[in-house]
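Exercise 7b. Backbone tokens:
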């Protein structure tokens, strides 16, 4: 099949490896240790973190597989794709998972706004670490509009 439909030259190939187990905490640490961004201040309370994570994991995903691992690291909320949960014929090139991550980020933004927080997001994946889908950090702002959807999350 690769001869008929070759991979684009700059594509991020994460299907080459078979994931027979969910990401371990050690593997998660290895992914995050490659993180090169300037650390951000830890400016969220424990309750805000828990509420934002609860909203994030309520996001819809194909087959409700929830193919993610979330971790606060150096002031960022890191969004990591745990392919073990999403590897199927229905998640071609991880497109379904990426849509689920988009829904997750929308939930994060909606919930964060209820605390007066602006979410700044950076999206990947990158060839060096294709499982790190994106990161978010939070800035306090007085003029954030709270969306009515926050009640639905």
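Sequence design result:
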């Amino acid at each position: 099949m690769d001869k008929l439909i070759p991979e684009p030259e700059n594509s991020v190939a994460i299907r080459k490896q078979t994931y027979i187990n969910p990401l371990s905490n050690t593997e998660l640490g290895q992914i995050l240790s490659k993180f090169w961004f300037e650390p951000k201040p830890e400016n969220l309370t424990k309750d805000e973190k828990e509420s934002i994570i609860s909203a994030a994991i309520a996001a819809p995903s194909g087959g409700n597989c929830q193919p993610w691992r979330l971790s606060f690291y150096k002031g960022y909320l890191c969004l990591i794709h745990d392919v073990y949960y999403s590897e199927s014929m229905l998640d071609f090139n991880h497109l379904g998972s990426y849509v689920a991550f988009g829904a997750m980020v929308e939930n994060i933004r909606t919930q964060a706004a209820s605390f007066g927080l602006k979410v700044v997001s950076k999206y990947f994946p990158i060839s060096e670490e294709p499982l790190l889908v994106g990161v978010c950090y939070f800035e306090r702002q007085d003029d954030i509009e709270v969306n009515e959807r926050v009640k639905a999350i």
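Instructor comment: The helical segments are 25-33, 46-57, 95-113. The chain has three helices and four strands.
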